[in-house]
Backbone:
């Protein structure tokens, strides 16, 4: 069986800006694949290339076996796309929107609309409301319902849970997992690291390029960094001194955390830096996905260095 | 000493009970995280604490009387989009009664602190989301308040800008500010000294992140277990 998505040196330029830069990656069928990166990293442009909205400037890609340069119409029949720029008509109710989409796609009966609404957690009251008056969480559910109405094999979700509360996030992810088990492929862009953790695999993007791809566990493991956690008193002074020497330092409560390349023995340097303070513990801990990601961004691109 | 306090605070809007017997006490120099779903009452609580709302009953600190000791970065964009960064700072500085030389000194210091040097003449409305949040923080710090209320300062902000914003929060924390920070992100409040779970207007639990997490894999799962 072919992959859901295969890209080879895929590139998209807008004038002098290269929004997607030589991206090569593969997404398997039934996989939940995350795109993580800062604003301007190219996540949305990549999704729009793969969903047939933009044409590539260079490189190539197939989506569900179709070439994105020539088969854009057929691709659009088989994918669902929930965009950030909201895709429902504000003047229409949720139900009217879904019936409208059902007409466009064709071959969708009312029972299917009921099923999808039930699955994403839209009740009768939600369905009767005008889309422009919905809370963010309900609006995201309605947009998801519209995106999956026609049983697409591949669904693109662009920041699906921004503004959704914790219980709503849990429900949405449970639903994504159910569909994935049944064979639907998801490509999800997100800002939220705890959400990225839920993906099978991730691509870390910055400046249009894919810096790394792999499972969250592999990305953490292969990051080549460890986090030295320091407990010292007074912690305020410890933080200020270590931050001055190593700008990547962060705080966790009153513990000071210092990401560093694995194998670099910083204990002596840290203790030296903290002379005169009471150092209670210096220990190596595994990095979080966020540690890994911020480290990669700063060390690969030099962009967005934290303020001193 | 408790710098930020809500004691048995009740606040209703018509028939809606926004806050029900809420108790929160942040000691001097501590960083507390306030986490809960949309509509849990986070913003109402912050506004009561800031003295912008009067509670139906209960007591708050610093409240209206203590507003000169308080910096409040409200949720959303409360700056003037068609004024420049410098003009916004000047406007808020004058509101706080800063004189010309004090304002100039604070502006230079805080723009440097926030990494916004060189952006003084840009229109605030044209800044990125992360830069807007930093400017909001700068404007709330002009009068050097020892107490800070930050209402969802990183919502919608990308991971790199969020890290930069947290660098600022950590610096302020290390320099002794007392901070209450509301967030919808559990991995974020995990960095605080203590976390307050707010749900449907009630405080469900308060404690250090590791205590609240207990046996659960994450703070978020612990929260979901308590609320459902």
Residues:
């Amino acid at each position: 069986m072919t992959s859901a998505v295969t890209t080879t040196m895929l590139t998209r330029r807008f004038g002098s800006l290269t929004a997607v830069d030589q991206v090569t990656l593969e997404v398997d069928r039934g996989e939940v694949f995350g795109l993580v990166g800062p604003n301007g990293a190219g996540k949305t442009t990549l999704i729009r290339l793969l969903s047939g909205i933009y044409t590539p400037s260079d490189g190539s890609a197939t989506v569900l076996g179709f070439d994105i340069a020539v088969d854009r119409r057929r691709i659009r029949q088989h994918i669902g796309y929930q965009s950030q720029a909201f895709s429902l008509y504000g003047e229409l109710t949720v139900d009217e929107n879904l019936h409208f989409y059902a007409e466009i796609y064709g071959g969708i009966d009312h029972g299917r609309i009921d099923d999808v609404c039930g699955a994403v957690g839209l009740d009768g009251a939600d369905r009767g409301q005008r889309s422009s008056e919905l809370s963010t969480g309900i609006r995201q559910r309605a947009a998801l319902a519209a995106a999956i109405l026609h049983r697409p094999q591949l669904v693109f979700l662009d920041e699906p849970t921004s503004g959704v509360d914790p219980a709503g996030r849990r429900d949405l992810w449970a639903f994504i997992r159910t569909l994935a088990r049944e064979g639907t492929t998801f490509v999800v862009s997100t800002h939220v690291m705890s959400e990225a953790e839920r993906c099978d695999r991730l691509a870390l993007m910055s400046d249009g390029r894919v810096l790394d791809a792999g499972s969250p566990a592999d990305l953490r493991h292969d990051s080549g960094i460890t986090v030295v956690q320091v407990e010292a008193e007074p912690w305020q002074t410890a933080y200020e001194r270590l931050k001055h020497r190593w700008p990547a330092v962060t705080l966790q409560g009153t513990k000071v955390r210092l990401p560093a390349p694995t194998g670099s023995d910083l204990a002596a340097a840290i203790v030296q830096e903290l002379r005169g303070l009471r150092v209670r513990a210096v220990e190596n801990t595994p990095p979080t996905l966020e540690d890994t990601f911020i480290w990669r961004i700063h060390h690969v691109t030099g962009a967005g260095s934290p303020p001193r | 000493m408790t710098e930020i306090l809500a004691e048995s605070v009740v606040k209703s809007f018509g028939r809606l009970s926004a806050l029900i017997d809420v108790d929160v006490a942040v000691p001097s120099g501590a960083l507390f995280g306030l986490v809960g779903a949309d509509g849990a009452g986070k913003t109402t609580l912050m506004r009561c604490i800031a003295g912008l709302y009067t509670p139906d009953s209960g007591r708050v600190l610093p409240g209206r009387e203590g507003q000169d000791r308080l910096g409040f970065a409200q949720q959303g964009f409360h700056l003037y989009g068609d004024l420049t960064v410098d003009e916004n700072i000047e406007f808020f500085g004058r509101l706080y009664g800063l004189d010309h030389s004090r304002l100039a000194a604070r502006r230079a210091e805080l723009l440097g602190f926030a990494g916004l040097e060189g952006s003084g003449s840009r229109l605030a409305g044209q800044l990125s989301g992360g830069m807007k949040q930093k400017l909001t923080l700068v404007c709330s710090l002009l009068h050097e308040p020892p107490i800070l209320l930050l209402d969802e300062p990183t919502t919608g902000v990308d991971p790199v800008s969020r890290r930069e914003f947290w660098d600022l929060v950590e610096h302020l924390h290390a320099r002794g500010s007392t901070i209450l920070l509301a967030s919808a992100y559990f991995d974020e409040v995990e960095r605080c000294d203590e976390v307050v779970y707010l749900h449907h207007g009630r405080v469900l639990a308060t404690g250090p992140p590791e205590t609240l997490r207990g046996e659960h894999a994450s703070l978020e799962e612990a929260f979901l277990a308590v609320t459902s």
